[in-house]
Amino acid sequence: MNRFIRHIAAALAIPIALSWSIAGPAHADSALEYRVKAAFLYNFAKFVGWPDSAFSTEIAPVIFCVVGPDPFGDSLSGTVEGRKAGGRDIVILRDVRLDEMAQCHLVFAPNAQANAVARILQHEARSGILTVGEGPEFLESGGIISLVVDDGKVRFDVSTEAAEAADLKVSSQLLKLARHVKR
Length: 183
Hints:
This protein has seven helices and ten strands. It is α/β, with parallel strands linked by helices. Helix 1 (2-19) packs antiparallel against helix 2 (26-46).
């Protein structure tokens, strides 16, 4: 029963995050926006299935990579510290260069890097890499999940086509919560 309650609580974390507004002073907006986005990344990792071949061992961690300058500050570490995704520890690598992305399981590309990251990974063997970027154009560039600010709230869009190309399984629960699903 305890496991069932934890599963339900985890499933509710995404809708709760969806309801957070980021209205307020500009500097507070950015900090809150990236706290919300950090929660999204963690939940994405819990609701996406990677192929076994994406990990070197049964206990290898899920590696979150932030390409270029890290907009999260301490938010991402604070969100995932001591937590697991798919029974695996989570490790964060920051300021990852485009040529280092092959070691990553989840790649977050801030706005300035998003389209370049999506295009590079679209043209390479990218099995097992969940690409998450910012802005509505990210999916059109080949990204899997795009985080967007819509009416003062952080929302997300998903490309199931890009996820399938990366050999990733996106949970139907996650797809139900997406603003748009590109098939």
